[in-house]
Specification:
There is one protein chain. The protein is of the alpha+beta class. It has a domain at about 35-64. It is about 40% helix and about 10% strand. It is built from 3 helices and 3 strands. The chain has helices at about 10-15, 40-45, 50-60; strands spanning about 15, 20-25, 50. A 3-stranded antiparallel beta sheet has the order 1-2-3. The chain is elongated.
Length: about 60
């Protein structure tokens, strides 16, 4: 059986932590930030872990 290849689009958007969780950045931070509250902008800066249902899929796409 051949080795799996890393999906480069996924690799640019997510990364796997040392414990095996998949971490992503939040959407909605590209532009139009002046219309968003400071609290909302602060929360958008934080990383978010992928839910367990999709984590398995993304983990496989990340090469493992």
């Amino acid at each position: 059986m051949s080795k799996g290849k890393t999906h480069k689009g996924t690799a640019k958007r997510m990364r796997r932590t040392r414990t095996g969780k998949v971490v992503r950045s939040r959407a909605g931070t590209s532009h139009l930030m002046s219309g968003k509250s400071a609290k909302r902008r602060r929360r958008l800066r934080a990383k978010d872990s992928v839910k367990t249902g999709q984590a398995k899929t993304y983990s496989r796409l990340l090469g493992g």
